[in-house]
């Protein structure tokens, strides 16, 4: 059960961070862009006092403006991206310069320099189709992918399939073909190493349980832009893996929407069974039965220039076969023979998105976003040794939500505060009709074949509440940032009831009863992690060299609360006091440099070098799971036959697998037992 306290704290911090700040200026989103540049006259001297105005359909105000300083420099920071912008430069005594069709990308700084010519203010020099020059103020290796690029790529629609489109990123495992990896997660490889990524969706890190994979199951239909950085991240990023920033589409003053869908059937798939395998009776490998997806969205205005909305939905479903995965035994009772009936593996994922943007004044913007999806899998795990009747049914609801407040304090100072949640609750249940008295879980040790219900149903919630604030200020040749990041995380692995089939697993060796594993169900262990981080960065431009300096302080506290374990058939009730497992803090530096190699105005070459220090993220486990939760009692039960059964289980009955002969009853070796604690 998710606790209400962290949610209230998250919202309160996000609201208070901006509630008492004077209102001036404009707004931003997490993957914001910026325009910088210099105005000069025909002699090359600085042109001070030039009014720079910016307009775009991406803005919820008509225009933004600033003025060039005594050096002719200007900055327009924290601009919504992606978006098409028009920049106008004007001052009495000069011709008005206008740049149309300037397309900005999230997370990147675009440089627009201008030479002001003498003339009448009413005359305008217009330049259209301007190719933006990326200013080398960032030492990270960024790849920005627009929604059209993602849609046109021949990959699946999952968020994880976007990552290999960026330089330096790949995924472990099989490549996706026609969404064959639907609703799956793969380990992320960054520059050849398995590293934990940071995946921000609408400003909320959704990397749950600190795994190396791609976090929650989301698709890309509702995304406007994804920014991926493989290396060179500054102190605002805590971990050495890929840094991913994904932004939902937004509303606008114009209504817009789309519908898309596709379909696949077995005729779309070619066969790959070699003649040598076909001669042995192998006719299928992993056949496609059917696939479809459908998505639609709509965005627009509720109040012009004040309140925008965006909403969308999608559904994907695939049915496919898996070699060796069967729905039952063949006519002779063989589960692993080639003529055993093949089972279908059904996977589906549906998702709903909602985003609201409210601009109460020219200085303030509030953004709320909510993403809900649900994964369904009819068999987990599914393999040649876990047939369909023994697999679990998986339902996994997923939620990501945030509230963001952006305020401009001065023309050079900006504040962003975000609070929200990212997590899921994976729920597992036995196949209908399999969890019955007299139908225990059994495993053949020589083959690993499992019959009967899977022995570990339950739920595995992963909750992560987060709040962060970021204050940035441009001053001369410096761009300073000061921020903090605070998280409340909770993970559990719960089996909250006793199984009708019995809380034990029977083990056979070549058909002979060998051992029994008794489980101390029910168990409800909880693990918690609290973290705090503060960071400071400075992007310092020295002519053609930019230094990116940063420092990050972090503190982690891993613990579990006091817990009570209910009694079960093989264990009594117990209580465990809470315990702090690990508490530590550290300070890590970041240094990067970018050297602009441009020899002419429209070039954009650069050389980047950086030094980064990172550290791992601590994760602890509840002692309930170590001392009482997944504690198992192993016993050789065939030796004493019925006598052992009566001694241990009372009214619960153990059954040999059909067709397996038991050993002769004897108590010569007595009862052997050993304990195993699941870590």
Question: Secondary-structure blueprint of this entry?
Answer:
Elements: H1 4-19, E1 33-41, E2 51-55, E3 64-67, E4 73-79, E5 83-90, E6 96-104, E7 109-111, E8 114-116, E9 124-127, E10 133-134, E11 142-146, H2 147-152, E12 169-171, E13 188-190, E14 193-194, E15 198-201, E16 204-205, E17 223-229, E18 243-248, E19 256-264, H3 275-278, E20 288-303, E21 307-326, E22 342-361, E23 364-380, E24 392-410, E25 413-430, E26 441-444, E27 450-451, E28 458-475, E29 478-492, E30 504-509, E31 512-519, E32 526-542, E33 545-560, E34 563-565, E35 574-576, E36 579-596, E37 606-612, H4 623-629, E38 632-635, H5 641-649, E39 673-676
Parallel strand pairs: 1-7, 1-8, 6-9, 15-18, 26-30
Antiparallel strand pairs: 1-4, 2-3, 2-5, 5-6, 7-10, 11-17, 12-13, 13-14, 15-16, 17-18, 19-20, 20-21, 21-22, 22-23, 23-24, 24-25, 25-28, 26-27, 28-29, 29-32, 30-31, 31-38, 32-33, 33-36, 34-35, 36-37, 38-39
Notes on the structure:
- This protein is mainly beta and 679 residues long.
- Helices cover 6% and strands 49% of the residues.
- The protein has a 13-stranded antiparallel β-sheet, with helices on one face. A six-stranded mixed β-sheet has the order 27-26-30-31-38-39, with no helix packed on it. Strands 1, 4, 7, 8 and 10 form a five-stranded mixed β-sheet that branches.
- The radius of gyration is 30 Å and the shape is elongated.
- It contains five helices and 39 strands.
- The two termini are 23 Å apart.
- The model is unreliable at 1-30, 599-604 and 619-679 (pLDDT under 50).
- A hairpin with an 8-residue loop joins strand 2 (51-55) and strand 3 (64-67).
